[in-house]
Every structure is written in C-alpha cells, then in structure tokens.
Amino acid sequence: MKIDKMILVLAIGFFLFVMSLTSPAGQQEPSYAGKSLGHWVKELKKGDEQRANEAIRALAAIGAPAVPELAPLLKDKSYSIRTRGVAALFQIGPAAKEAIPLLIRMLGDPNSGEPKYEGGAVTMTLGEPEAKALRLLVITTLYHISEVAMPALVAALTDNDQLVRLGALQALELDSTTPEEATAGLLAVLKDEHPGVRGSAGRLLARRGREIVPSLVVLIESSDANGKKGAIGALGELGPAAADAVSTLQVALRDGDEGVREAAAESLGKAGPLAPPVVESLVVALSDNSEKVQLAAAIAVAKYQVKEAIPVLLKTVQYDTTETEGILKDLDSQVGDLLSRTVEESTAKDATRAANALGEMGAAAREAVPALIQAKQHRSPEVRQAATEALAKIEAAIDKETRP
Prior knowledge:
Helices cover about 65% and strands about 0% of the residues. The protein is mainly alpha-helical and about 400 residues long. Among the domains are: about 35-175, Serine Threonine Protein Phosphatase 5, Tetratricopeptide repeat (Alpha Horseshoe); about 305-404, Leucine-rich Repeat Variant (Alpha Horseshoe). A two-stranded antiparallel ribbon has the order 1-2. It has a two-stranded antiparallel sheet with strand order 3-4. Helix 8 (about 145-155) crosses helix 9 (about 160-175), helix 14 runs antiparallel to helix 15 (about 260-270) and helix 19 (about 320-330) packs across helix 21 (about 350-360). The chain is elongated.
C-alpha cells in the first residue's frame, strides 16, 4: 500500500507539473532567436528600418501566436508602423486569418480618412503615393492568405460598416472573376447611396454575364431610386449582353427620378443595335426636362444618325469643363459622322461647336477630317479657326495612338 500511495503522490505531482506548463499562468511566451514575442513587437515599432525588418522576419517565424500582437498595429497613427504590421502579416501568411477583418477595413479607410466620391468613382483621402502603396500591400496580403480571405470578403459585402463594404469591393475588383457566392451581397450593395460604390458592385456583377440579367431586372422593378440606378448601371457594364433587359430600360426612361432616367438612357446606348421603337423612345427623351437626361439620350441615338440629337450634342460644347471633355472623348465614330455633316451644312455658330466637339473626340473623329479640311475654307473666321484646331487635336491623338 505504501508503494501504491507513493506512486499516486508522484502521479498527482507530475500531473500538476504538466498542467502548470500549459496553463495561462505558466505558459511561456513564444520566442525567436532566444528573444520573446513582446521584444520583437517592440522592435517592429522602433524607427530603425534594419531592426524593424529583423522583427518582421522574427514574427513571421513565430507565426500565428504573433497575430494578436500585430493586429493593434494596423490601427496605429503612424503610417510606417501600420505598413510594417501589414508586412509582418503577409510574411506569416494563411496563419494570419485572424487579422482579415481588420485588413478589409483598412482598404476602406487605410489612412483614417473618409472616402470621397468624385466623378462616379471612389477615391480615398490618400493622395500620397505611400498611402496608395499601403492599400496595395493590404490587398496583396489578403490574397496571400487567400485560403480564408475570399469567404471573409464575401461576408464583408453586407457588413454594417460602409468602409468594410468598400474595402471588400476594392479587393474583389482586383480578381479576374466574381465568385458566385458574392452575388447576393453585390446585389445588396447596388442599393448604396454613393454612385462609386454602386459602380464597383455593377462592374463585379457584369462579370457574371447574361445570367445576372434577370436578377438586375427584378431589382429595377422592385427597388428604390438608388437600387434602380445601381442595377441599370450594371446592365450598362454588360453592354450588348443586356439585350434581354432593353424593354425594362425603356420603362425606366419614364421613371420619376432624374438619375434613373439618365442611367437608363446611358445603358440603352451601350446595349448594342436597338430596334426602331427603342430608338424612338430615346428620341422622346431628348425633350426631357433634365439636361443630363437629354445629353445621355443624345449620345445614345446619335450613332443611329438621328438629327434631333445634334442640338443637344452641340449644347455640351458651350461649356469648357472637364466633364464635357470626358463626354466628348467617349463619343464614337458614328457620332463623328453626324457632327461632320453639321460642320458642312449648319450655321457658322453650330459649325463652330461641331468642329470643337470633333476636336475633343480625338482619334474617334478621324472620318471627319475631310469635312474639317473643307471647313478651313469657310467664310466664317470662327469656323476656320475651330476646324484648324480640331484637325490638330485629331492628328495628335492619331499619332499618339499609332506610336509604338
């Protein structure tokens, strides 16, 4: 019995010893090269680049246990520390999955600034190259731990935090395909109040091709103005593949919201060859009480040589704005044919505007060169000057296009 009691005492003692090694109180902190995790995190935060790089290598070697210590660095006020924190997570790789939510949010707000929406595109308050580089590093890190990143990105599309949704969209846009499991989240994002966010979701959904059209049609028929604009924009991204939705877009041309009508006209213009009744509905939109809708309709029907579009198109060149220049540069050669006839057949005022428009179109207006050469002999000095300047712009654009 004494032996049995001795064995029992020894066994209990050994058990307690083992438990002490695995309990929180007695657990040893992970280390690398004889130095603790805490030591390497402190080194990472110091200004010396050489020591910081050594710390990153050490933390990568420690692996998953280092992630909880690195996560707070992603919120640090110092750009340098945030960058080093992301770099360390990249080195750790898939074991850093715990940090994915923070990385996604960093894409939406990598420099503690609110997103801005300019010209329909999302831009961040990060003009500095360093901040752009940080975003690229974050995206690269997410895809480096791709074994678990994609489900997290899909889930982030429906997050209550707008910055998280924005970050997920930006990361997904870098991939060449859109995962099927992201469809529901992307359709929800089409209802976002900001056009840049809706546009990003629309581009991603358009990668699904014609199969996404029915879902977009349902959204147009059942959603508010933002949802309608988002879904209509996605149809525009599909181009001719959205042919089955043309009748829905025609109905949207009569919507009570100006933005919905404008988006419908733009998307119809991208939907490929249109039947005469559809073109006629766009001609009616040329008389819309909104100048934005008028212009969108004019650009859509001008390629069908609809003369009623000419006054609306010429009106755009009355104002020398960046937006106008962008619109004119997007016009195609068929619109150029219509404008070149305007140079030949219209009053001096309209001929001058048409020549200016052709010049802004650049290489797309190459077919109008003969008409502009003829216009250099026009009786009006304004027309002659406009034609000369337009020819110079077109020739420069063609030269740039053909230059190796």
